[in-house]
Specification:
Elements: H1 2-32, H2 35-41, H3 50-56, H4 61-70, H5 76-92, H6 106-111, H7 113-132
Helix pairs in contact: 1-4, 1-7, 4-5, 5-7
Length: 136
C-alpha cells in the first residue's frame, strides 16, 4: 500500500513537472518567434496589443521556475536566465528608467533591440531545456 501511494505521488509530481516544462516552453517559443511569426500567431483583434500580450504570459512564471529549480530539474544558471527575461520586461515597463514607448508598439516589436535581445534569450533557454530535459 505504501509503495502504491509513493508511485502515485511520484507520477503526480512527474505530471506537474511535465506541465510546468510545457508551460515554460510555450512561453519561450512565443517569445523566440520572429516578428512575422508572432504577428501571424495572434488574432487580428489583438494584434495591436501583441507586445503587451507577450509580456502578460510571463506574469506567473516565477512559481513555475521555482518549482522546477527546487525539484532540481533546472539549475541556477537557467533560473537566472528566466529571471533576466522578466527583469528586462520590468525595466522597460511604463514608469521605469528604460521605458521607451516604441518598445510597446508593433514597430518596436519588429525592430527594437529590446525585442531582439528578448528573442535571443528565449532561444538560449529553449536550447538549454531541449538539451537538459526530456523533450516533447
Amino acid at each position: 500500500m505504501i509503495v502504491d501511494k509513493a508511485n502515485k505521488s511520484m507520477k503526480k509530481k512527474d505530471i506537474e513537472i511535465y506541465k510546468n516544462l510545457k508551460y515554460l516552453k510555450q512561453m519561450l517559443v512565443q517569445l523566440s518567434l520572429s516578428y512575422e511569426e508572432q504577428l501571424n500567431s495572434a488574432s487580428d483583434v489583438y494584434k495591436w496589443n501583441l507586445p503587451n500580450d507577450i509580456v502578460s504570459s510571463w506574469e506567473n512564471y516565477e512559481q513555475v521556475v521555482d518549482n522546477l529549480f527546487n525539484a532540481k530539474i533546472i539549475d541556477k544558471d537557467t533560473k537566472d536566465k528566466f529571471e533576466a527575461i522578466v527583469n528586462n520586461f520590468d525595466e522597460a515597463s511604463l514608469g521605469s528608467e528604460r521605458f521607451e514607448e516604441i518598445i510597446w508598439s508593433l514597430e518596436g516589436l519588429k525592430n527594437h533591440r529590446f525585442w531582439q535581445n528578448q528573442r535571443e534569450l528565449a532561444k538560449e533557454l529553449l536550447l538549454v531545456l531541449s538539451r537538459n530535459i526530456y523533450d516533447e
